[in-house]
Amino acid sequence: MNLFLITYGALFTLMNPLGTVPVFVDLLKKSSKKQRRVISFWTSFNVFLILLLAFFTGKYIISFFGISLDALKIAGGLIIISSGFALLTGTFVEHKGMKKKGVKADIRSRREITITPLAIPMLAGPGTIYFLIVYNQDYKNHLDILIILVAMLMVTFTIYLVLRSSYSIVKTLGASGINAISRIIGLIVIAIGVEDIISSIVNIINNLNF
After folding, report:
1. Phi and psi (nearest 5°) for 175?
2. Of 149, 125, 172, 168, which is closest to residue 37 (Cα–Cα)?
3. 146-178, pLDDT tens digit by residue?
4. Most buried one in 17, 167, 173, 210, CB count within 10 A?
5. CA-based angle 8:164:127, to the nearest 5?
6. Beta carbons within 8 Å of 89's beta carbon, 6+ residues apart
7. Could you tell me the pTM of the whole model?
8. Do residues 82 and 143 touch, judged by C-beta distance below 8 A?
9. Angstrom distances, CA of residue 177 to CA of 130, 163, 173, 188
10. Spans of all domains in the chain
């Protein structure tokens, strides 16, 4: 149960579906309720596929490039800290590159948005992918893997519910409410990144032969 809660909490925090709500509402303001529901489903489904891919194939990528787990944790920690600061300063959308003129024009012109920009990079970004690669290395037990997979499934279901209820969330919380929650999440995200970096540095020092 502990592993489930930690995994679910970390994934929800790193993906921060509430931060995607304003983008979702803006992109689908001319869509019907049914269309928004369908796009919510396929976005969350695509997120789940990306999480599965990251969890099961990430180890082969780091092995191919000869990257140590500690080096990956430090790099990933820096990415997570960067994302956390973006949430803390209210620049999350800009951090994802969504405010660039060329990117906005490209998004407006495409019919399929459930993979990009919604599933990736808005939800399953580099920080989330890094987190799952590390978890694949840390947890080898079949029961632990099953628990992590269930947590991944539940967090993507939560994303579906959040996106489906996006208009209600905006009406209830407003932009200021969403920003306030995102800033709190940003602080937690920064703490996760700092913890990863510290643990990796300590591990590197412990393995040094003086």
Report:
1. -65, -40
2. 168
3. 999 999 999 999 999 999 999 999 989 888 888
4. 17
5. 35
6. 186
7. 0.86
8. no
9. 29, 16, 5, 17
10. 2-14+39-205
Q: Which residue has the tokens 């990528």?
A: 61
| Residue 122, CA distances (Å) to 44, 86, 174 in order | 12, 13, 20
Place of tokens 């789940």: 48
DSSP state at residue 29:
T
Query: How many Cα atoms within 13 Å fall on the side-chain side of residue 129?
Result: 20
Q: Read off the tokens for 31.
A: 């869509």
Helix, strand, coil percentages in the chain from 3-state DSSP, rounded to 5: 85, 0, 15
Tell me the per-residue pLDDT of 120-132, one tens digit each, with 9 for 90 and over.
888 998 899 999 9
- Reported as type and span, the H/E element at residue 161 is helix 142-164
- Three-state DSSP string of 98-150: CCCHHHHHHHHHCCCCHHHHHHHHHHCCHHHHHHHHHHHHHCCCHHHHHHHHH
Which tokens in the block code for residue 15? 């993906």
